[in-house]
Amino acid sequence: GAGVSQSPSNKVTEKGKDVELRCDPISGHTALYWYRQRLGQGLEFLIYFQGNSAPDKSGLPSDRFSAERTGESVSTLTIQRTQQEDSAVYLCASSRGQGNTGELFFGEGSRLTVL
Amino acid sequence: GENVEQHPSTLSVQEGDSAVIKCTYSDSASNYFPWYKQELGKRPQLIIDIRSNVGEKKDQRIAVTLNKTAKHFSLHITETQPEDSAVYFCAATRYGQNFVFGPGTRLSVLP
Description:
The structure holds two protein chains of two kinds. Helix content of chain A is about 0%, strand content about 45%. Chain A is an all-beta fold. In chain A, a hairpin with a 6-residue loop joins β4 and β5. Chain A is globular, with a radius of gyration of 13 Å. In chain B, a hairpin with a 2-residue loop joins β6 and β7. In chain B, the strands form two sheets. In chain B, strands 2, 4, 5, 9, 10 and 11 form a six-stranded mixed beta sheet that branches. In chain B, strands 1-3-8-7-6 form a five-stranded antiparallel beta sheet, with no helix packed on it. By secondary structure, chain B is mostly beta strands. The interface of A and B includes residues 50, 56, 96 and 101 of A.
């Protein structure tokens, strides 16, 4: 597709369940980011992938959060044993990456509600 | 690492007036500074950007200025319209690595 694609767009889950969110970046974009945005709040950095380099995981809030990306393709963000405070919109973004300063393109986000 | 601060957190202006949002950054090696607009329930979208080799850039009613010495950059919106109402985020990055965003400014344009 032409843009960053995320799925699901909405996810309602019960506390304690695991969830998996998917991001399909723009083709050829080597950099991929996950951000969390709570209602009315800013963009909280979670994790950054750049090509085949080790990801920057410094923003992951706890060990319940993990993310994977194979090469320069799809990424999945997994939240284990979800808590109510995990409720937020999870935004994925991609760019051409290191050495290529340019626009960061966002997906529509995955809205997670933990009951 | 980079740290980006943004002020004000909220801003209300009368339609037709100008709005200015200011950001500061900490990493002198940052060389790309985009501004994103996020309308309610929508994704952030790029409205203007500036690179470190330029001091000012203008696109119709929107302009961005950069002061590398002071490490701050500003967004200027002239002749504001109701559709300018949104949350605006500044960001800084070094060579496309690890975009760091400011906390956002909620702009309300009052009719």
